[in-house]
Specification:
Radius of gyration: 67 Å
Number of strands: 0
Largest sheet: none
Structural class: mainly alpha
Distance between the termini: 151 Å
Length: about 290
């Protein structure tokens, strides 16, 4: 097989595959039915043409038969007048017309035979068309039922092209919904963290941190107050430590009070102004001198 032959074979096979895939059985059956009806119509037209030709020959034959009778009468009249020559001419014409009638009979017989054959073919073709019509309708019903069943099965299994498109649309909708949900959750998280509020606020980061610390301290203070009101004090070790620190603070305060001229009971006169270190030193020197002189 040459290159051109192989190429032609491949092209025909590809074209045949395309035509098979694009062919609709219902349309094919209807087209075949119409083709058969066209053939039947052609046969009927052929029968009509043959019948017309036969009728024309039959009309011509009747005219020749009339001429034969006419020539026969002319021959008798000529013999009655003793005109044998005229009678002979009339008989010769009669003979010619009879020969033509024989030829016409042969042609008419052939046309009749053809007409009978065409009529028989027409009857067979018409019967075949009726059978094909019944089979066509049955095949169309079976094909439509099979196609409907295929569509139902494809819809149930999701194997059809339309169901694939629906599946892809659902997937796209799910992806878009998940994306919107994720964005909404992100916006909520940023809202809780105060990102959007910070963007609209005039406070800087240090002020915001101080506000948070102050707010936390206020919350801790309120919590301690609630604990104290409910009788939940600190542990024993913490109380002892607090008492020791308070004693130490009291002793230190008493000493400072004595040095500052207090009443010796650990109370400091609130109205007494603070004394400078130089004045304290001068007073200490005066006390030492008084003790030495005494």
């Amino acid at each position: 097989m040459g290159i051109l032959s192989r190429a032609s074979y491949v092209i025909r096979s590809k074209l045949n595959a395309v035509l098979n895939s694009a062919e609709d059985p219902n349309e094919t059956l209807d087209y075949s039915y119409e083709q058969l009806r066209d053939e039947l119509q052609d046969v009927k037209e052929g029968i009509a043409d043959l019948t017309t030709q036969k009728k024309r020959l039959e009309i011509q034959k009747r005219r020749l038969e009339e001429n034969v009778e006419k020539h026969n009468d002319q021959a008798r009249q000529a013999m009655e007048q003793d005109r044998e020559d005229l009678a002979r001419k009339a008989l010769e014409k009669k003979k010619q017309k009879m020969n033509q009638i024989e030829q016409l009979d042969s042609q008419i017989g052939q046309l009749q035979s053809q007409q009978d054959s065409l009529v028989e073919q027409k009857d067979q073709l018409q019967q075949r068309i009726e059978q094909f019509k019944t089979k066509k309708e049955t095949m169309k019903a079976r094909y439509e039922a099979a196609e409907a069943s295929k569509r139902v099965n494809e819809a149930m299994t999701g194997a059809g092209d339309e169901m694939k498109d629906v599946g892809r649309a659902i997937e796209r909708a799910e992806e878009r919904t998940e994306k919107m949900e994720a964005r909404s959750q992100a916006m909520d998280e940023l809202q809780e963290e105060g990102v959007f509020e910070d963007a609209l606020s005039d406070q800087d980061e240090l002020e915001r941190e101080l506000d948070e610390i102050q707010s936390k301290g206020e919350v801790d203070a309120e919590l301690d107050t609630l604990k104290a009101e409910m009788g939940k004090g600190e542990p024993v070790e913490e109380e002892a430590a607090d008492s020791e620190s308070s004693d130490t603070e009291t002793t230190t305060d008493d000493l400072e009070a004595e040095l500052a001229g207090g009443n010796g009971e650990g109370e400091v006169d609130v109205d007494t102004p603070d004394v400078a270190d130089s004045e304290v030193e001068s007073e200490l020197e005066e006390l030492k001198e008084d003790e030495q002189s005494s």
